[in-house]
Amino acid sequence: MRRYIEVPLQLLDIEGEGFHIMVKGTIHGKEANFLIDTGASRSVFDPNTIATFIDDIQFEKKEGMTAGVGSSDLESATFVIDTFTLGEMEIHDYEAVALDLENIHEMYGKLHLPRIDGIVGGDLLQKYKAIINYKSKKMRLTP
Fold first, then answer.
1. DSSP E strand stretches across 28-133
2. pTM of the predicted structure, to 2 decimals
3. What are the pLDDT digits (tens) for 29-48?
């Protein structure tokens, strides 16, 4: 019996300067693209984008500021995603962080890359013991 789930990866070429890792999944059953960011401490979602996936979303403002995503001192909030998937890996009742990702949307648009619906960070990568294999273009997650 297999004790892990393999998620196919797509390497996005950033104008010959390197690569970003994208995985496909769903949010509340709707197809979504996720950026894998091993340097991000938490997984984050743009509030405007996530609102297209979740009806009547409830954001709870987070005290203090959040640093990262190309800037510092960003306001953030938390909210709950009932169900989302990374490949076939199902994640339930996840308390996510809402953070303005407009700078990423703009950059991806200029580079003609797929729109990103969320960023998977270290919290989920550590929880599910992620192993990223660039050669096979797969990420192994352990439920």
1. 30-36, 44-45, 60-61, 66-68, 71-74, 77-86, 89-98, 118-120, 131-133
2. 0.88
3. 999 999 999 999 999 999 99
